[in-house]
Design a protein that fits this description.
The complex is a heterodimer. In chain A, 31% of the residues lie in helices and 32% in strands. Chain A is built from three helices and eight strands; from the N terminus they run H-H-E-E-E-E-E-E-E-H-E. Classes of the chains: A alpha+beta, B mainly alpha.
């Protein structure tokens, strides 16, 4: 029992030291996308068959793709890494507008939400409408007027 | 008591191995070695690890009970010696190879093992991101045959522990390549980077625990290429650092697929035991499909490059 207590205490102490050190070494913050070209290059790796018009979020942390094949995709920063997905009709639970942001909730337990800052009201409205019409079941609640 | 010595050595080894994590993070942050840590990723690894230890502690009686039962009905009496340890170690490594291969090739088992692959980083802290359900998935029963053959359960546990300790150091980017004989015979950071990569070329490869010969023997070996750096993670990467979602996401996905309406029993079994990415409507994203698509895209790209080269030669003339 004493051995177990020592082992647990040693692990807890080591864990605390490790967390403190990792906090100290947390390093550079995630680098946003510089431009649509960079978004395109990242998409070419992550979703090579999705080509189309790219709308870059104003903070560079996400991008939406209006695919030339009629589908829609999203590129999203997750920590320092990038993920991309096509958004099908069944994937989207809700689209919400909050200020300058479009907030998406996905049905995917492993990727529950995404948020995009689109300052231009016209661009925001166009994308909200586009995402809304992926499927009739998608709900859109607008907390602020986007027109 | 042997149990006490085993416990002390295992605790000491664990402590020393854990100390290497902040050391790697520190050296990588200062640019002294290749590697990258991200706070949220490492925190997720640590939290998932706590859950994994908890569930292992809670459910390990399933595994221990099965091994003890098999040993009670053993075929032979294998003595507890250095040579029997070597034999047990090699046989256990073969067991690990098949455990690992099945864990990647069948979705029920993948749902447990995917946790370890779900980080998009590759560093020593990735070792901590382990399944919460390994005892529950059923694959730990692969440990039973050694005990049934007559190897002492303590010896089986020792072989298993040494195997896992060996695998700790291979989760590192700082080591490029080991000497050729070493790379041929043993699992190395290079081989394991391939294993953790989601590039189609690298998917479902290099399952070895210690001896790389199993992959060479059973046709699953893929070498790391300098012109194709590994992209760590899984085919559909997670959009979260939430440990609960990391640990259980594939079970939720299986549940959603099983609840689809109008599926036949065979189709439901396909979603349960088929390869990850299998789909009843033929829109598979299995490793075989992804590899074929990638090979086809690379062939098109090469053909296009040859055409461009031909055109530019024409233009130069």
């Amino acid at each position: 029992m004493n051995q177990l207590a020592v082992a647990i205490l040693a692990n807890a102490a080591l864990g605390a030291v490790m967390l403190a050190l990792l906090w100290r070494l947390r390093g550079r913050p995630p680098v946003p996308l510089a431009d649509a070209g960079e978004a395109e290059r990242r998409l070419a790796v992550l979703l090579p068959d999705l080509k189309g018009t790219i709308t870059l979020a104003d903070d560079g942390r996400a991008a939406l793709v209006d695919g030339s094949d009629g589908t829609v995709g999203v590129l999203l920063q997750c920590g320092r890494r990038w993920n991309a997905r096509r958004i099908g009709s069944a994937d989207l639970r809700s689209v919400r507008l909050e200020g300058e942001r479009i907030k998406l909730r996905f049905a995917d337990f492993a990727w529950p939400r995404a948020e995009l800052r689109l300052a231009d009201p016209a661009v925001r409205a166009t994308w909200a409408a586009r995402l809304q019409h992926l499927d009739g079941s998608t709900s859109v609640s607008q907390e602020l007027d986007h027109a | 008591m042997p149990e006490s010595i085993y416990f002390q050595w295992a605790a000491l080894a664990q402590l020393l191995l854990l100390l290497t994590i902040p050391l790697e993070a520190w050296l990588a942050a200062r640019g002294r070695i290749k590697g990258e840590y991200e706070l949220r990723d490492t925190l997720a690894n640590i939290t998932v690890s706590i859950g994994s230890i908890f569930f292992w502690g809670t459910l390990s009686w399933l595994y221990v009970g099965a091994v003890m039962y098999a040993y009670a009905h053993r075929l032979y009496d294998v003595p507890f010696t250095w040579w029997s340890f070597l034999i047990a170690f090699v046989l256990d490594d073969l067991r690990y190879y098949w455990f690992h291969r099945i864990s990647h090739r069948s979705r029920w088992f993948w749902a447990s093992h995917v946790v370890h692959h779900s980080s998009q980083h590759f560093n020593l802290s990735t070792n901590l991101r382990q399944s919460w359900t390994s005892e529950f998935s059923g694959l730990t029963l692969l440990n039973v045959p050694l005990a049934f053959l007559g190897f002492n359960p303590g010896l089986v546990a020792l072989a298993f522990t040494v195997n896992l300790i060996y695998q700790f150091w291979i989760h590192i980017e700082a080591v490029d390549r080991m000497p050729r004989w070493f790379e041929w015979l043993l699992n190395t950071p290079s081989h394991h980077r391939v294993h953790h990569a989601s590039n189609p070329r690298y998917l479902d490869a290099n399952y070895a625990g210690v001896f790389m010969i199993w992959d060479r023997l059973f046709g699953s070996f893929v070498a790391e290429r300098d012109d194709e750096p590994p992209r760590y993670g899984i085919v559909h990467n997670l959009g979260t650092f939430n440990p609960l979602r990391i640990a259980l996401h594939e079970y939720v996905a299986i549940g959603r697929d099983l609840l689809r309406p109008r599926l036949s029993l065979a189709e439901r079994l396909g979603y349960f035991f088929g390869p990850p990415g299998w789909s009843h409507d033929g829109r598979h994203t299995t490793t075989a499909v992804l590899r074929a698509a990638d090979a086809s895209a690379q062939a098109r790209s090469a053909a296009s490059a040859r055409l461009d080269s031909g055109l530019s030669l024409t233009e130069c003339r």
